Amino acid sequence: MNSNDKITLHVGLDDTDSTEGMCTTYLTHIILEKLEQMGIKALDYPRLIRLNPFARYKTRGNGALSFVVEIDTSMRDTVKNLVLENVEKYSMFEGVNTNPGVVFYEGEITDKMTEYALNAIYNIYTIEYAEKFAVDNNIEYHKFKKGRGIIGAIAAISIVLDDVTYECLAYRMPENYGTKRRLDEDSIFRMNDETYPETFENIDFEQNYAAIEPHTPCPVLYGIRANNPEILEKARSIVVSHEDMEGYRIFKTNQHTDMHIQCGVDIADMKNTSCYKFKCHVVEAPHDIEGGHVFFKVSDDTDVIECAAFEPTKSFRNIVRKLIVGDELLIYGGINDNHTLNIEKFKLLKMASKFNLVNPLCSCGKRMKSAGKNKGFKCSKCGNKLRNSSKVKEVISRDVELGFYEVPTEARRHLSKPIIRFD
Ligand code: ATP
């Protein structure tokens, strides 16, 4: 191979941030800027890949990053060193759960790698498993501290995306980290008016506030999510910031695609820390427990599972409270370590009828009265009697409609597909 031959280099990185600061998207942005200064441009948008939402050591949304460059073989080491130096320089090594991992891979992504990536969304891996996978599949890996980040980094380079969304992340000037973000809220509402539903999750309509800014000391000023990158350029130009921005970057992502949801699994076979979509019927009515959480039970006739709408899902709980035994549902959600299914959204497919038991009506139209124990009913208006009769069902109308219901923006998982994205 001659030094001007081209190679396709996949770069993956993960676990560089902590709750105290940093963000792996920002580190990716810095690296890409430095590569761009050297005349190396990534082949496509960098990718922000959300993995299993139940991963134990995640900082926030379990995101891992990847990008692809096509470079002369002579630049291979320069690019790798640049990535590694910046991970060393910017990672939050002091964070107890910050264990960065970087991977490099040349060539085509194999079916085995794609399968690994999908299972990093469905299941939980160990560092040892990821390390062995890297060795067996010619993936060069670099571990910092425990190096847990290689789990996500391998998945981020390997995943094949059918459905995608895009996120534009704007970054703060370092001197502003940790201070209150100074965004013009009216401009965010205006941006939403002009770009929704091609952009989404901009506003928490329930509490009527702009939901694009994080509430952590990280470098992100705001994030706007959309179906395509073009609308993000428009949306970004409408949002007014009263603080200077360091820059922005558009990422391609599996956010809002329901990629974490597994279909066709019976309740009896469902595992903790996995997410599913399944048809079922309510077998135990919703009830509130301490803390404002609402619990109920459903079955698909293979087993019963407890479902929860937790307090942060706010008004979504009011819909859940209206469910009754016998209602048929299509539920989307994930099972926590206590084997309780945390509902992300559901479709009410069929309503059970709700009724009261009441005395029968007389032929004259008047509601009859009891004639005494086991003596049937009599009409106080015309004197009619019904001897061998019992109470009848009076249907009560249900204060809920068939259709989809989802948790509000603030309580939504990154991977959850909002109803507005359904065809
Ligand atoms: P942010 O969203 O701010 O980037 P985060 O929530 O992505 O933070 P990380 O700091 O990236 O959290 O930590 C997540 C850790 O979990 C990483 O080390 C990643 O490799 C690991 N991880 C990802 N998926 C799995 C999985 N399926 N099983 C086990 N560990 C995983």
Would you kindly provide a written description of the structure presented here, covering whatever features stand out?
- The protein has 3 domains: 153 residues, Alpha-Beta Plaits, CATH 3.30.70; 89 residues, Glycinamide Ribonucleotide Synthetase, Chain A, domain 4, CATH 3.90.600; 116 residues, OB fold (Dihydrolipoamide Acetyltransferase, E2P) (Beta Barrel), CATH 2.40.50.1010.
- It is elongated.
- The strands form 5 sheets. Strands 5-4-1-3-2-11-6-10-7 form a 9-stranded mixed β-sheet, sandwiched between helices. Strands 13-14-15-17-16 form a 5-stranded mixed beta barrel.
- 21% of the residues lie in helices and 31% in strands.
- A hairpin with a 6-residue loop joins strand 20 and strand 21.
- The chain has 423 residues and is α+β, with helices and mostly antiparallel strands.
- The model has no long low-confidence stretch (mean pLDDT 95).
- The longest helix is centred in the N-terminal third of the chain and has 15 residues.
- The chain is built from 8 helices and 23 strands.
- The structure holds adenosine-5'-triphosphate.
- Adenosine-5'-triphosphate (ATP) binds next to helix 5.
Salient structural properties:
binds adenosine-5'-triphosphate; Glycinamide Ribonucleotide Synthetase, Chain A, domain 4; 5-stranded mixed β-barrel; elongated; 3 domains; OB fold (Dihydrolipoamide Acetyltransferase, E2P); 21% helix
